[in-house]
Specification:
single chain, alpha+beta, Alpha-Beta Plaits, five-stranded antiparallel β-sheet, three-stranded antiparallel β-sheet, 12 helices
Length: 372
Amino acid sequence: MESVIRLAISVGGSALVAFVVCRAADLLARFADARHPETPLWGLLRHCRTPLYVVLMAALFRWTYPVAAHAETVGHVLLLCLIGGGAWLTVRTVAAVVESSYARYAGRSRDAARLRRVRTQVTLIMRVVAAAVGVLAAAAALVTFPSFRTLGTSLLASAGIIGIVAGVAAQSTLSNLFAGFQIAFGDMVRIGDTVVVDGEWGVVEEVTLTFLTVRTWDERRVTLPVSYFTSRPFENWSRGGAEMTGSVFVHCDHTTPVALVRAHLHEFLTTCGTWDGRGWDLAVTDTSPTGITVRAIVTAKDADDLWTTRCAVREELVGWLAREHPGALPRVVTAPAADALDRPGERPRAPRQRRGRQPARNPTRPADTPPD
């Protein structure tokens, strides 16, 4: 009975002390966040309440646990909880510090491309830190078992051979891992960049150490290994700025008033909200026996606005030509040439009869005899 009472006191006291300490730390972080709203660190540190409570609870209970028959087993379990909670607390603390640093940098910088690059690097650094802390915590937890401790001593001699075999077996995984570092710190692809892969364009939504996710214009997610971007050519429309220039081709008749079309294009662009005003042009780029090809050039601040502007210009030009100059639209000529009909002294040729069997004449009646 006495051991049960001591156990209850130990559990209750540890939980109470851990709760009081965590509550005090939370109130302190909240007070600091209210005093310094320009620094998001204190608000982010409040997310560490749960792992801090686990660490304090495991440490206090292991220290105050009464000596009993199962004290060694319970102490080992508490030690594992302490290792896991410490790793969890470390990852949350590092994440709070990194996110706070990025938020302060983003508040001072006005370069969107540099912000995307830093965001990609911060994301990959956090993943590396989380993976490293997890591996160290797992190794520390395994070392607490005596059987694994003796096994580790025997495996240490063959670690070189195991490393070589593992490297050969995981060659593609390691290549993706190093490609992830190359993308993060080589500034090849950043979160938020507009890229074209396999003939489709989209926005880079997520970058990890092994794969990269691209969100296409129709809300699909294309997942690619990061080695794809280090071994194959691809288009990155966000390099050097997100501004883009696009073209619209319209097929017209030879009689199209190009000057009027050019003036109407400029008038329409002044009212188009997605045109950024950097530049425009309209010119005849090709001709054929049946018509001409008119090319309009427009600019926009990004790929989405460029697509909208191109569609709007195409609809406007075709609609305006259909209303104001219907003869400028392409057509198929089936009438005879006009100059042949206007020549004096010439008569148009009679249409040729279709070839085929002629109707048979009545042999009992002359050709000049009218029918009955």
